[in-house]
Amino acid sequence: MPRKEEDTWVLRFRVSSADGKRVENTLPVGLVRDFPNEASAWREVDRLGLAIRVNCDAPCSRPHPVQHTCRALSESRLRRRRSTAEGGENRQQRRTYRSPLSHRPICDALADDIKPLDIQRWVKWLHADQGLVWTTVSKIRGVMLRIYKVGLLHELCTRNPAQPVETRSKTSYRAIVLTPQQTLAIIRALPNVLHRILVLTCAATALRSSELLALRWADIEWTEARIRISKRWAQGKDGRTKTESSDGYVPLHSALARHLIDWRSQTPYAKETDFVFPSLRANGKVPLSPAIFVADHLRTAAIGIGIPIEKGQRFGLHNLRHSLSNWLINKAKTEPKTVQGILRHSRIQTTMDLYTQEDRDETRATQGQFLEALAMPLLQWLWAGLWVGFIAQKVCK
């Protein structure tokens, strides 16, 4: 049966209403892509016990409730996100919402049959056996929690077993932070002018790579000295920004503006609707590939100037975002609220906890200031006391 969201198998049957008339009813069985033929759909009917429930002569005005699988709850959640104002999720969000569907037997178990201990063992298995870090496991547990909430709202299940499940959400990831001198050395090591201006713009604005690649020349407001961020490049097309707070502006200093103007005079794609950082191989129809650029050029240049990057260690354009945040707060002593605005974080805790690391030079200098505040006469008295004690011990001997 074709539906607005997706083609679905339904079970048609007749029941007796209160006035004795036979009324046709339907019950959803599952999606056509999950059960490609009628035989598989009938097997699902038997598994759910639908035939037993509807084959009764007792008068009823409403069919018995259907038990749904965890997979069905997840698909229901995705369909409702697409059909409401909440929709428009990006590829990573869709992958996260589908993550519970890729693990058996959780995905095919009836939602009301899953116990909290089952989910607790499952999340531990994801970490211990599948190698997922706890932050990812915590997100999956959060997805399960929201899936069941939607199921309760639409009466697809009777309880939420993910509620008492515990996970860890603290990350052990520490980004490689570059100094301005190291960033300049990387820019000089890149032979392509397109790659140079790309790294310079990313380092100065702390834009996410997807936001940077989505930039057109029309997004640069020269007279206002700012850059409009209203979209990001994902799945080969423009999409919404990562969060609502990401939709806004970043400052455009005159020094960066001069470099962009010089680049516009050299690029063959300088129209208002053209990409600022186009793919020359694709004749400017799409922006350059960030994955290829990082693998073939950025990492090579960073390793070439002596940045210690181990094999498999994460390093890319996002490290420039971390680097700017770290330098502004630790070196430039910029107000954290201002840095939060530049990075367009919705919470200042993200700026301070994840994007700013401890600076050893700053902590050492702060310790020195404390020692100076103790006053030298006090320290001289301390050493004098120690010397007298040492002489007294010699005399006693």
Low-pLDDT residue intervals, each spanning 5 or more residues: 56-64, 83-88
Structural class per helix/strand content?
mainly alpha
**What is the overall number of helices?**
16
| Count of strand segments | 7
Order of helices and strands: EEHHHHHHHHHEEEEEHHHHHHH
Report the average pLDDT across residues: 78
Shape: extended
CATH architecture classification of the largest domain: Orthogonal Bundle
Quaternary state of this entry equals single chain
Residue share in helix: 40-55%
Whole-number radius of gyration?
A: 30 Å
Task: Give the end-to-end Cα distance, rounded to a whole number of Å.
Answer: 103 Å
Structural summary, described in words:
The protein is mostly helical. It folds into 3 domains: 8-54, no CATH class; 70-153, DNA polymerase, domain 1 (Orthogonal Bundle); 180-354, hpI Integrase, Chain A, CATH 1.10.443. It is 48% helix and 9% strand. The chain is built from 16 helices and 7 strands. The chain has a 3-stranded antiparallel sheet. It has a two-stranded antiparallel ribbon with strand order 1-2. Strands 5-6 form a two-stranded antiparallel ribbon. A hairpin with a 4-residue loop joins strand 3 and strand 4 (226-229). Helix 5 (116-128) packs antiparallel against helix 6 (134-153) and helix 13 packs across helix 14. The longest helix is centred in the C-terminal third of the chain and has 21 residues, at 376-396.
